[in-house]
Specification:
Layout lengths: L34 E6 L2 E7 L8 E7 L7 E2 L6 H6 E8 L4 E9 L8 E10 L4 E8 L13 E4 L11 E4 L5
Antiparallel strand pairs: 1-2, 2-3, 3-4, 5-6, 6-7, 7-8, 9-10
Protein name: F-box family protein
Pfam family, one: Kelch_2
Length: 173
Amino acid sequence: DASAAAPSTPSLPPPPYTCSDSWVTFASNLPAKPRSPVLISGSIFALCDVGSPWRSQWKLFTCTLNNHNNWVCLEKHEWADIFDLIKRPRLVRGDGNKLLMIGGLKSTFSLNPSCSTMLILRLDLEKLEWEEAGNDSGSGNEGEGEVAAWRWIDEVPGGGKFGRRRANSRWGG
């Protein structure tokens, strides 16, 4: 029956849409596509993979909203190990002036390492110091004491505060 009413669609307000005053254009002078940008205290933080197609190398970049054409690589020599530990890192806003980075803890430095532990690191933006905020070995109750039996290995090359690696003691590595 042609007289049956067709389902109605919601109507949009007529153009032009005038939201342009609230948008800010950012320069694309980053070395790679930014990953998981986060806004904290008037600054944007983002991760960029500046490595090769064969090996990821993550760097943390920041810019202020007032100077959005000037991205700066936020790094310290001691942080090199931190970014090597994490596979597929993501940024999340923490409490106050804190930035969280979440990702899988690499078990080896092979081309495509597996990850059995999720690691959460917290960066204090005032002190520019990282600390471990938490981790999840993902073992649940099954195999408790085997799969989730981790130990710290000290004196790993690279040293520094984060020159420690966790290894699964069941497998001895």
